[in-house]
User: Fold Tetratricopeptide repeat protein from Saccharopolyspora griseoalba.
Amino acid sequence: MHARAAEYRGALAALSVNASLDDVLERAEQHDAAATTAAERAGAQLAIAEACRRLGRVERAEAAWRASYRTARDAGDHAAVAWALWSGGTLARQRGRYALAHRWLSSAAEAAERGADRVARGYALAGLAETGRVQGDFAGTLRLHEQLLAEARADGEPRHVVWALEGIAQIHRHSGDHDAALAMFTEACRIATEGDDRRGRAWALRGIADLTSLRGETERALALLAEAEPICREMRLESALAYNHKMRGNVLYRAGRYAEAERVYRATVDEFDGISEPRGEALARLGLTKSRARQGAPAPQVEAELRELQDRFTASGLHHAAKMAEAARQELLG
Assistant:
């Protein structure tokens, strides 16, 4: 079964999950201008919001999802309200606003229940699971990820199956079960390939590259990331591309190629900053500091940078990342 883009609704439902975001935005703007019903307007505004979010145009994405929400709310369309709130919650997570992400995504799940939209409910719950996972609540979100994986398999939603597998794989990876993580990323890659879900495939390749690197297979890991990069560029997946580059920095750092890693991390900090994604920017900055420390940067400067990053992670609720910063301080400074 081929993957579909459930967030493209109404007249835009025919858009492929692999459609270039520039094309999606152009089509959505055309439909918004020509819309004659609330459902058409809400659907077009949602697509505008999602295209802009993924392109890193966060201010326009914010305005568009709110417009979609108001249109759907005024029309009494609970399902469309749910999709708009899902978009808003996803954007809030991308911008590092985790409490707000929980609020919007919880409201999205409730609206989806009222609107009897099972897919929107699944996406909202998936958003809640992912928000908790990126904050480091691995035990608390594993059960929800597994529940959503079972529902996605039962519903025949390959794109959602891929998402759930990748989320569970990330939890196993951070819990130290690398074999289970690799098996799940590999299955996700296979399903994404068979379902022609190029976005899901790009993320799966990144996960496989991470674990391949941890096994000491540096060149193989770099080749996997190089395979995923054109997908991100062709579809204009700006966030996925930046995370691909950050992983390249991780691979080089693990291989002891600190000068190369420093160059990659430095460029990636700018990439994340350009799309207003503070979590990725801070993680790339952590890698940059570690690379510079390995090349002899002054210990007081390294200490100050790691303390600042740890404080940033703690203040924003990124508990796992805060532990990573503390581990780096112990590793590099004793």
